[in-house]
Specification:
This protein has 345 residues and is α/β, with parallel strands linked by helices. It has two domains: 246 residues, Type I PLP-dependent aspartate aminotransferase-like (Major domain) (Aspartate Aminotransferase, domain 2); 94 residues, Aspartate Aminotransferase, domain 1. Helix content is 38%, strand content 15%. The chain has 13 helices and eleven strands. Strands 1-7-6-5-4-2-3 form a seven-stranded mixed sheet, with helices on one face. Strands 8-9-11-10 form a four-stranded antiparallel sheet, with helices on one face. The N and C termini lie far apart (60 Å). The mean pLDDT is 97. Bound molecules: pyridoxal-5'-phosphate.
């Protein structure tokens, strides 16, 4: 497995933008190097381009070294950087496994990279044989969300191990929902697999979708490459500060997580009592995918009662499926009440 061969030639060659803060990293009394406004308001200085304090805070929680992390303006930016670092437009391809997170395909199209789609099996497990057979010399990435969105299931470790063993490309495991799962993160296996990239986010379990903060974990070499091409000040000062503050509130995080998981189980019990619910798919995330008799009808009925869920019926293998996020205890009660009302009519 030679990572160097996977990197785009222009990226290997390019000399990154060198910011004022790159050239001078120490403490000084007077900063006249970055054309900033000198009048302090707390935000007049450019933020740390490498988010050192934030990475140190994350290192403590995740058990990963700061040099194995890249932070982005949401996972969406992180994923875009991965495409741009490794996929030659109009030449290389990536493999995705629908039904899955919609951004993988959008990013491929934006970057003019061919997408090979290998459907999940009927039980939403990975079709590893097919993935391996579809991969070719131009395949640079396999993108897996695990737990997956919109299906909610986590992929078997053995299936992913098989891909890591058989394929000569990078395997990106998007762990946006891993905090809701009892399964281990792939972060534990980072040292073993140099071709492994794990992404996580503060948008879900950490409750910080508004600050846009995604994290890429990979070997120091991959991080070095991604750092070369990222916009220098991609994570703003407010987000960095708010994230550091929030990461210190482990108690709040744990409490909220516990409530969400309890509430998720209550939703399941509620769904089980509805005659129009045909199937509740197993979920390792904070949402349920349920199959109903008529998804459009239920969707509209809920909307009429002021509740919006996601109709995923148009996704492959998801006919008449709704994706429902766990809300607050009050919101979940409202949802179940609204669904019951439709059951009677
Ligand atoms: C919600 C979600 C994300 C989060 O993206 P951000 O840009 O970090 O908010 C990433 N991947 C999947 C599969 C998701 O469902």
């Amino acid at each position: 497995m030679n990572i160097e061969k996977l990197i785009r030639k222009n990226v290997l060659k390019l000399k990154p933008y060198s910011s004022a803060r790159d050239d001078f990293k120490h403490q000084a009394e007077v900063y006249l190097d970055a054309n900033e406004n000198p009048f302090g308001n707390g935000l007049n200085r450019y933020p740390d381009p490498y988010q050192k304090n934030l990475k140190n805070a994350l290192a403590g929680i995740k058990g990963i070294l700061p040099e194995q992390m890249l932070i982005g303006n949401g996972s969406d930016e992180v994923l875009d950087l991965i495409y741009r670092a490794f996929c030659e437009p109009d030449e290389d391809n990536v493999i995705i496994v629908p039904p899955t997170y919609g951004m993988y395909k959008v990013l491929a199209e934006v970057n003019n990279v061919e997408v090979k789609e290998v459907l999940l099996n009927d039980d939403f497990s990975l079709n590893t044989k097919k993935i391996i057979s579809r991969a070719d010399k131009k395949t640079k990435l396999v993108l897996l969300a695990s737990p997956n969105n919109p299906t909610g299931n986590i992929f078997k470790k053995d299936s992913i191990r098989e891909l890591l063993k058989e394929l000569n490309c990078l395997i990106v495991i998007d762990e946006a929902y891993i905090d809701f799962s009892e399964e281990d993160s792939w972060l534990k296996d980072m040292e073993k697999y140099p071709q492994l990239i794990v992404t996580q986010t503060l948008s879900k379990a950490w409750g910080l979708a508004g600050i846009r903060l995604g994290i890429c974990f990979a070997s120091p070499r991959i991080i070095e490459i991604l750092n070369k091409i990222k916009p220098p000040y991609n994570v703003n000062q407010l987000s960095q500060e708010f994230a550091i503050k929030s990461l210190k509130s482990q108690i709040v995080y744990n409490e909220n997580l516990k409530i969400i998981l309890e509430e998720k189980e209550k939703l399941k019990l509620g769904f089980e009592n509805l005659s129009f619910v045909r199937k509740i798919y197993p979920s390792d995330a904070n949402f349920w995918l349920i199959k109903v008799d008529d998804a459009a009808k239920i969707y509209k009925g809920l909307l009429n009662q002021g509740i919006v869920v996601r109709d995923r019926s148009k996704e492959p293998l998801c006919e008449n499926c709704l994706r429902i996020t766990t809300g607050t205890p009050e919101e979940n009660k409202k949802l179940l009440k609204a669904l019951k009302l439709m059951d009677r009519n």
